[in-house]
Amino acid sequence: WKRFLQITGSVTLFTVASGVTFYYLARKDRTPGIQLPHDPTKKTLVILGSGWGATSLLNSLDTADYNVIVISPKNYFLFTPLLPSVAVGTLNPRSIIQPTRYVTRHKSRQVAVIEASATEVDPERKTVTFADTSEIQGLVSTTTVPYDYLVFAVGAEVQTFNIPGVRENACFMKELEDAEKMQRRFLDCLESAAFPGQSQAEINRLLHMVVVGGGPTGIELSGELHDFLEEDLKSWFPELANSVHITLVEALPSVLPSFSKQLIDYTESTFKAAKIDILTKTMVKEVREKSVILQKPDKSIVEVPCGLVVWAAGNKLRQVTRDLMDKLPEHQTNKRGITVDDCLRMVGTNGSIFAIGDCSATSYAPTAQVASQEGSYLARILGQIAKKDELELRLQTLQNQPETEESKTEIDSVAKRLVKLEKLRPFRYSHQGSLAYIGSDRAIADLPFFNGNLATGGVATYLFWRSAYISTLFSLRNRTLVATDWLKVKLFGRDVSRE
Ligand code: FAD
Ligand code: NAI
């Protein structure tokens, strides 16, 4: 009895302590405090975007140093690694987004959040023009603001290579609405296949899902589609489940070129067991309403009937990025993106524009990991720059005053401190490894390990994948929502109702 009471007491104490801590943290998140107002003596920092780079910067930035303006067509941050889970209904769309105001309202100084798309940056006059591109607009829907420093973090957009029919007939997997659209279309295909009197050939067509692109996005999405089929469709559409067929098309000789050979083989064998067809060395040449046109390795062209095509064939620069680069033709010639120096300053802009994430061309892969490390690095650099700017102003004031012994000593001291602040530490990326979910409760991971690499795949890696992503989510709110969604799906399965 004594032992039993001891254990029960400890469990109760632990539960109450966790509950109180959770309540305290949630309450803190929910009730932002009073913020410093706009300060006309501070410099203006404009941040374009609310994705990985911009949000990581905002999280770490001391906004007391600047008057900060965030401009983005999305007033939220999207946790892209879990987007494929939204597409099959494992996660609720709202669980993986974080309103940008939830971040900015907790900062020391007020931050202006503007839902708009930047349409033009003028590096000469140091201005940004932006427009409200949403459905509803007020009397003013486009304007221009000046900046002292600009952080360009607008990411990239889907690359279609101008292949006919892609935009019209395929779904993308880049934004939240893409995942929602894919889910709707997928369920529509199922319901249409279940329509009475449908021929077997038409059922097969409607239930043939083609994923284009064997990069991590295409692989994760195929894995999620397979899970949906195995875990839910077999229960709710038993008569159709055997007709569902997933094909992954990749132009290169293998999928996941950025992962090690061992993990590529593991993924291919997992897909084979899951009956997901991988067609490598095969190019999609056209996407039609009811089929895809493929160029096979022997260069022959075939038309393959299908119900749904998901286009995950990579990204390209946004128009606003290309326009900005075109304004600095001598310095910005890299087709992959904005050329930056070691401190992420856009070359040719005298340190007034920084570029981070997928819109910049660095030696690192365009990933969330890189963008978020660049964001937090930039927060430190901008803190240092703010101190330097303040000291420079102080030095100017002192130099304009009549010289005294006291002012001479202060000038010396300020000048010394300025020299220290002049040198910015360059950005260094620290690779934490690559992770990808491949379906069937399995994940793969390429992890840096004792100066080497650890390539691992399987169920344990899958649990690691889940815990890594839960801990990477930016807020307690998102962590709770995602964990609850996972539990809900385990208990009740995915929702197959079509909105
Ligand atoms: P984004 O996060 O795309 O943010 C760009 C921001 O700019 C957005 O808020 C956008 O609304 C805004 N914007 C767009 N146009 C304008 C404009 N004209 N003016 C102002 N703002 C604008 N990477 C990993 O490391 N691990 C993963 O597991 C992983 N999984 C992924 C899964 C999917 C499905 C996808 C699509 C990507 C995944 N990535 C992953 C890649 C990762 O999402 C990107 O590398 C990362 O989002 C880049 O961050 P960013 O800040 O440059 O751009
Ligand atoms: P990607 O560029 O990595 O892969 C796209 C693939 O599509 C390429 O392999 C390309 O050969 C293929 N392709 C292009 N055109 C084609 C065509 N016409 N027919 C057939 N195949 C075609 O794009 P993805 O997967 O969207 O990834 C983008 C970035 O995001 C990458 O840097 C990636 O590392 C990162 N990412 C990382 C994830 C992770 O670490 N778990 C998950 C998702 C994305």
UniProtKB/TrEMBL annotation:
Domain FAD/NAD(P)-binding: 44-375
Domain External alternative NADH-ubiquinone oxidoreductase-like C-terminal stretches: 431-495
GO molecular function annotations of the record: NADH dehydrogenase (quinone) (non-electrogenic) activity
A GO term from the CC aspect: mitochondrion
Segments forming a coiled coil: none
Family membership: Belongs to the NADH dehydrogenase family.
UniProt name for this protein: NADH:ubiquinone reductase (non-electrogenic)
Species of provenance: Grifola frondosa (Maitake)
Taxonomic lineage: Eukaryota, Fungi, Dikarya, Basidiomycota, Agaricomycotina
